[in-house]
Amino acid sequence: MPPAERPTPSLTARQRELLDTWLPGYAVVADHTWGLDDRTVLEIVHARGRFIVKAGGEAEKHIAREIHAHREWVPVWAVTGHAPKLVHADAAAKLLVTAHLPGRLVLGSPAQDDPECYRQAGRLLADFHAQHQGVDDDYLAQAHDRIVRWLASDHRIAPDTVGRLRDAIRDWPAEPVAVVPTHGDWQPRNWLIDGDDVRIIDFGRAEMRPAATDFARLARQDFERSPLLEPAFFDGYGRDPREPASWRRMLLHEAVGSAVWAYQVGDEDFEAQGHRMIGQALDMAG
């Protein structure tokens, strides 16, 4: 996209108005829109520097959560250059502007198989989790209800597997659990590598949850690919807080949500991964 071109088709009139007010004369240099959700992601330049713009459409549900994360939790990383700094935000308009963060995605790079990358990611995540701790009386009950709703929605999970899943969650507990700020999608596609430094992006799923929920995607992707990565990650994190029963529940929740969501947005590769995760979680649950 030429630098002079403006992103008029993908932004609402209110979003364009705000961007023109915040960064008059900006130019779009790249469109990083994923295409699987109702969100536009643009890289722009302005006299003040380079920025990332995230703009939600009518059906978008994560911008407000991302803005909250940038205001409350991301500064622990942003102040050291390990996450982008918030520049402008308007939750009502579903518009967020952050400073551009240098680096390339760890996903698909040599760093994806480098234990030092995972050691750094563990250390960064420990700092993020340590900012605050609370207790959520309803987390487990709500997680159970989400699985029930997912299984009742459109998906391609086999009927006999649905039956096994319903059996596995029948005695799901409902006691209070400790929760911390979590990223919500902690994996190499949301890490950047710049020289030797790991940096973090994309906070649209950030929320107060049990700490171990941030380990689930790594456990079913990268940790299985190499025996060196999991110990490096927990060496950086400082400890392994996973307890077997709660860990199995988290993996079930993550697996079902992945398979259902991916089917509904048409991401067949991620859907297949979700089905593999379901099988693995059910085997763990016996």
From TrEMBL:
MF terms in GO: transferase activity
Keywords: Transferase
Protein name: Aminoglycoside phosphotransferase family protein
Xref: InterPro entries: Aminoglycoside_PTrfase (IPR002575), Kinase-like_dom_sf (IPR011009)
Residue intervals of the Aminoglycoside phosphotransferase domain: 40-245
